[in-house]
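Researcher: Last one for today. Full complex below.
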Amino acid sequence: MTQSVIELLKQHRSIRKFTDQPVPQDCVEQLIEAGQAAATSSFIQACTVIQVNDPTKRTALASYAGNQAYVASAPVFLVFCADMHRHQRICEWHQAEMLSGFTEQFITATVDCALFAQNSAIAAESLGMGVVYIGGLRNQIEQVSELLQLPELVYPVFGMCIGYPDQNPEIKPRLPLSVVLKQDVYEDKQDLAAIEAYDEAVRHYYQTRTGGKKVMGWSDQISAMLVKEARPHMLDYLQGQGFLKR
Amino acid sequence: MTQSVIELLKQHRSIRKFTDQPVPQDCVEQLIEAGQAAATSSFIQACTVIQVNDPTKRTALASYAGNQAYVASAPVFLVFCADMHRHQRICEWHQAEMLSGFTEQFITATVDCALFAQNSAIAAESLGMGVVYIGGLRNQIEQVSELLQLPELVYPVFGMCIGYPDQNPEIKPRLPLSVVLKQDVYEDKQDLAAIEAYDEAVRHYYQTRTGGKKVMGWSDQISAMLVKEARPHMLDYLQGQGFLKR
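Model: Here's the assembly. Have a good evening.
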């Protein structure tokens, strides 16, 4: 390997089109083991991955995610679940009464999952594969949970398609460093000016990539998105699963 | 680089003791840029990092985090914040009315932060540095927020100490693969037996590492932790910051 790890990280872009080349199961297991190696809050290890192979389930998930066909067709599809059910069973086993439903536990389990998944994503990319996170699973999260038979205290944070890339999209430009890195205190006086310049770079990116069909900056996309409700079913669903009760 | 990326990921362990070797600022910026390259939900880019240099602030943070001295002494200390304040300002700028407070937005911002931070952590480790996540910042999260002057719709998810390792701890064994990777559905009938065997491996790890002072398995640690309240102030604090209101 001559490429540096930082180069690899900076070359990330979502891959939504994959070749037919299969990903052997021992390779999937390597990605999971790489995920497990990530830091875990107080050693809680609250991530469980469900690998979905069954074509009927895949088709259903693709539809639940808002008709993202690659969820059905990708060589590998993983669902990363925040899991405190395991811990509940352990407490019962040790005859200890688990205090659940704390927002803090929701944060640690969700963060655990994200760190785990990001390690798996990087591991896949280091082997020449491409990935895309599927947050769209949260569109119909109740149906996803039923399909995967998720018990209480488990929720699907996101999915991930994995395979060998059959496309080569450009890397999307990110916010200027001055906007995301602050010194000692949160200070954002100069941010809007920097974002205005960044909007130009984003417009240029879309112009190049879509041949002028979608030409938007970043801030106009964001503001258009945020005037809408964001999956308003989420809190009810999560409380139903035993999370975020206090 | 002869070491594979997966090898690098699997060698992670938290580093809490650092040499005096400074980390140049352009190196810190590289870690942040690596973080920015991570996937971001709907391009929302909801992570802001506050690099804390001021020794007085560092000492305060070390105390807030439950007297973790390395928070004060590490060459670099970063606070990863989930940030929707930026988006609120953008909406105002575009004269759009942002609908905030959705649990979904809390999830995407928190996950964004975690993916970002994990990239930064891996980038640091790839350069021979070591890191430790500091979830303890959430112990006194209100005070941390005041100290860093965090506005509404920003919360510190965790901190991270970064520097060159002055210790070489063993890698902590992780749960058996069969416990964390499921096929098609959530199915845990065999898990407790696998966890019982894993407890032995964890006990052995502590025996080796602590010379017999702390000898616990995994499941007994977890159950002892979960009979206690988990930062019960968190929901009030987050709602005060404008999160998790619906």
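The beta strands of chain A are 47-51, 76-83, 130-134, 154-163, 181-183. The two ends of chain A are 49 Å apart (CA to CA).
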